[in-house]
Amino acid sequence: SPMFSACINGRLDVAKWLFAVGSAEDIHTPNIKGETPMYAACFWGHLGVAQWLFQAGAAEDIRSSNISGYTPMFAACYTNHLKVAVWLMKVGAANDIRTKSTSGWTPMFAACQRGNLNAAKWLFHAGASEDIHSTTNNGTSSMFTACCKGHLDVAKWLFKVGAVEDIRIQCCHSGTTQTRRPWTRSAWSTSRQAFP
Questions:
Q1: How many Å apart are CA 158 and CA 140, to the nearest integer?
Q2: What is residue 59's three-state secondary structure?
Q3: Strand, coil or helix: what is 135?
Q4: Which long-range contacts (C-beta less than 8 Å, at least 24 apart) are formed by 57-60?
Q5: Lesser CB count within 10 Å: N end or C end of the chain?
Q6: Strand duo 179-180 + 171-172: pairing
């Protein structure tokens, strides 16, 4: 909708105008992926838009999720928008710092997968410290994904805060019996088609 488009692009003035002239209900209307304007604003770091949506009547959307189970909190941590994440926690989405997606991704895993060290550290101290050890549905750990993506700073931090044993944990992928260890990712570069 035009409202969604305005919010995803951070056009607060346009969103307010649409709201005033008859599109008030569209502050809740999701796209085909189940993403609400609130989710879109948080994903792209548009804190002002998110705060306006909250005040305009979309407060419950701070805890809504898309079809993949990703919440606005997840989105903020995935994209390293810490100001948005902190705000979400203050206004009622504190429990979502540990909410898993349908594929088993936590905000901590997402932050490590993307190399967002600041987000990972914030989550750790905000109450998601146990999630440094959690794995996705296919058995992938935060340590594994950080190493796989080449985020050495994240891997070192994970090791420092307690994920010592995770450097040896193998990752089991759906549909195959093969496994990989974090530090041997390059050995599988020729077999990536087996692991989408």
A1: 14
A2: helix
A3: strand
A4: 57/24, 57/27, 57/28, 58/27, 58/28, 59/91, 59/92
A5: C
A6: antiparallel
